[in-house]
Design brief:
alpha/beta; Rossmann fold; 3-stranded parallel beta sheet; 43% helix
Length: 114
């Protein structure tokens, strides 16, 4: 993932999720660049799968609130297992939500976004 984040992430991957590809790192870097100047960014990882993007952002941007959505119960189980392996300070800032894309996001996420 992002420089430093990949060293901190050891993600579970099984048949229920796609394996994060090398291009995922580029997505994370773009997200980090887009929110780096914000004091309390709100980030949504839509179709989170393993949680690689969501967790990388939460690890790298201390004040970020990150929503990780997926419509697959199986994928969300994997994401929750991966989140459980991270520090409590990261866990407190990540919300894993079942649902399809933007429809899964709570209203306050829309209000907090820029």
């Amino acid at each position: 993932m992002a420089a430093g984040a990949s060293d901190k992430l050891n993600l579970r991957v099984d048949r229920r999720v796609l394996i994060p590809r090398p291009e995922t790192e580029q997505v994370v870097e773009a997200a980090l660049g887009a929110v780096a100047r914000l004091q309390r960014p709100v980030v949504a990882d839509l179709g989170t799968g393993t949680g690689a993007i969501a967790f990388s952002v939460a690890l790298e941007i201390e004040g970020a609130l990150v929503y990780a959505t997926d419509k697959s119960d199986d994928a969300l189980d994997v994401a929750r297992q991966n989140l459980d392996d991270l520090a409590e300070t990261v866990q407190q800032r990540v919300r894993i939500i079942k649902g399809s894309w933007f429809e899964a996001l709570p209203r306050e996420a829309e209000e907090d976004s820029t």
